[in-house]
């Protein structure tokens, strides 16, 4: 797989693109295309989370599972969709919690680039999916790559907040150097914001204010969670 044009701080990931598992993953994706499958997101957006959020600027990590599998939804950031695309239910619930937590009115769109530009790494554990088939590209190699991404963030000297929503995210980042265990990063765990789980612990968890309080306590700027309507 050809390495994308990543910010210099992510260049430590370069060896991953030469690893046998990544070559096998590339062959799998080529096979999907040859078979006529639609794969999301577009190739140009696959590593967008890393492109928008350099490693040395990461302040918060929000970990998703795999990209949206509907037409026009996935664009490389977990939970995010471009303007003009209906806001997915999980993101609607994220907005509800944001409003309850910080009083920020719900955005009229679902594009989270504004968060990414401030150091919120919106990372999916799997970076591609077949149209209409959730989890269709799991266990093909992406998990190993994104483990390397999380490990690179975990190795940073500056404290980072990990927002782990749901059992999948919590298991994925179980090795993070948690401040509650004497480490330097804050891990905030709760139920997933999906309609099936949000009322079992996501609502009321106040992740946004807790993240900002931790960042400010450790000398880092808080995140402006309000999404401007002018984003494109």
From TrEMBL:
The record lists the membrane-crossing segments as none
Give the HAMAP family listed for this entry: UDG
**Active-site residues, as the UniProt record annotates them:** 66 (proton acceptor)
Gene symbol of the encoding locus: ung
Q: Which family does it belong to?
A: Belongs to the uracil-DNA glycosylase (UDG) superfamily. UNG family.
Cellular localisation:
Cytoplasm
Biological function:
Excises uracil residues from the DNA which can arise as a result of misincorporation of dUMP residues by DNA polymerase or due to deamination of cytosine.
What EC number(s) does its UniProt record assign? 3.2.2.27
Q: What is this protein called in UniProt?
A: Uracil-DNA glycosylase
The segment(s) forming the Uracil-DNA glycosylase-like domain are 51-215
Give the keywords, sorted. Cytoplasm, DNA damage, DNA repair, Glycosidase, Hydrolase
**One MF term from GO for this chain?**
uracil DNA N-glycosylase activity
Under catalytic activity, the entry for this protein gives:
Hydrolyzes single-stranded DNA or mismatched double-stranded DNA and polynucleotides, releasing free uracil
Write down a Pfam family by its short name. Answer: UDG
